[in-house]
Amino acid sequence: MKILQNYIEDVLIILGMLLIVFATYLLSYVAAIYVLGAFLFALGIFFAYKPPTSKRR
């Protein structure tokens, strides 16, 4: 359970992003591709400025 506590916010953010993409896909396939691209672009910028470290344990 301790391991899950270290990563719970990351899991919730990724699940939230997946649900947003899925809901957009239900509306329009092309719009879902744009939303997914925007999320991946934003994650790329975020990890460029704040790279993940292995010091979470």
UniProtKB/TrEMBL annotation:
Q: Which domain of life is it from?
A: Bacteria
The alphabetized UniProt keywords are:
Membrane, Transmembrane, Transmembrane helix
Upper taxonomic lineage: Bacteria, Bacillati, Bacillota, Bacilli, Bacillales
Q: Can you say what this protein is called? A: DUF1056 family protein
The scientific name of the source species is Alkalihalophilus marmarensis DSM 21297
Where are the bilayer-spanning segments? 7-25, 31-49
